[in-house]
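Hi R.,

Here's the input for the magnesium ion complex you asked about:
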Amino acid sequence: MAQLSDDCFAFGGALMPVDEAVALIAARISPVAGVERVALHDADNRVLAHALHAPLPLPLFSNSAVDGYALRSADLPHDAARAFPVAGRVQAGSAAAPIAPDTVMRIFTGAPMPQGADTVFMQEDVEHDADGRVILPAGLRAGANMRPAGEDIAQGALALQAGQRLRPQHVALAAALGLTHLDLRRRIRVAVFSTGNEVVAPGAPRDSAQLYDSNRFMLAGLLRRLGCDVSDLGILRDDRAALSVALEGATQGHDLVLTSGGVSTGEEDHVRASIEAAGSLVLWRMAIKPGRPVAMGVIYGTPFIGLPGNPVASFVTFAYVVRPVILALAGASPEPLVALPVRADFSYKKKKGRREYVRASLKISTEGPVAQKFPREGAGLLSSLCETNGLVELGEDIERVAPGDSVGFLPYAALV
Ligand code: AMP
Ligand code: MG
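And here is the predicted structure with magnesium ion in place:
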């Protein structure tokens, strides 16, 4: 497990700007040790441990990009169309004979270029004469419709960077290079708790003043989408001794302990007290809405994050605090969240100096993509996350938004 010092999350300012939180995480968290050889079928969404240099060129051999007729560029007609005899035929998967001067070869997409040939006419562009010859028009450039070996990736070139989180296209590239296994970082193991005397598990008996736990399910899903192994460790009472036993116990076998609830103003005391003997806890007052404070702690060298209990605040702070911690522990290159410019269809006033996230749906209009704001703003409204498809990001400097203004939009799909 990564061993952190107790003061590693210390921060001097009053309000923690989002970018500073992300930078501090990148500086303080190092990847867990542990690399394993994994079959390609299991490599999706894992992190590549070492840079991968191409053992072979891609394409592996020069081949035709179209169905047509191959020839030597030295024979290309320049001023007028010219007829050529068809000297042979080469299909995908079969080897080609060398080409003779002043002839063409019938060729199909993906078939190897005959030795000496470097240009292909598309079959749609040629005509045929009564003697079975093909008539090639003038004007095609040398090298047309041919895919040279190594044009995609040269042999020995960097194919995938260390720290690349593998998506299906990265796994496809490794497969194209003939690899069967990759050296990947081990999965990050996260312990997840909910906290609060008012929180009960769905299906459990519930008093009139209690609510069903939703955060654990949301956080576990977000973590799994980031490639983590999740241990769902249930719900903790607001009780110092119980918290202390459970949180310390959870450091065994986990790289991160994550809770939600119980760290808003006043309440963090028993969380802090429960951690104090084994480590430390600081509150980051994030300059973010919806947000509230996020507790950053260290328990016996293992990172602890306490998210706010309100589901929307938990969701947003997950994206800005937990996600970068997971990527850093996993040895993944940072994947900054880039909001794409769209038009707002709403008016909005906000406080300068803090970043706000507005739940919105992206609609395509005749003037391009438009973000429609969810009509209500409560940080407890799960429907607001379910009925929208992303967040409008309003930067620290913005004070008001008017309909038609350009704003940044982050699709939920980009957060994991
Ligand atoms: P807290 O951060 O503990 O002050 O909680 C803020 C709000 O979030 C309160 O209304 C809590 O009841 C609610 N809450 C806390 N934990 C959960 C949870 N696991 N699932 C759903 N709501 C929660
Ligand atoms: Mg509470």
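One thing worth noting: The radius of gyration is 30 Å.

Cheers,
M.
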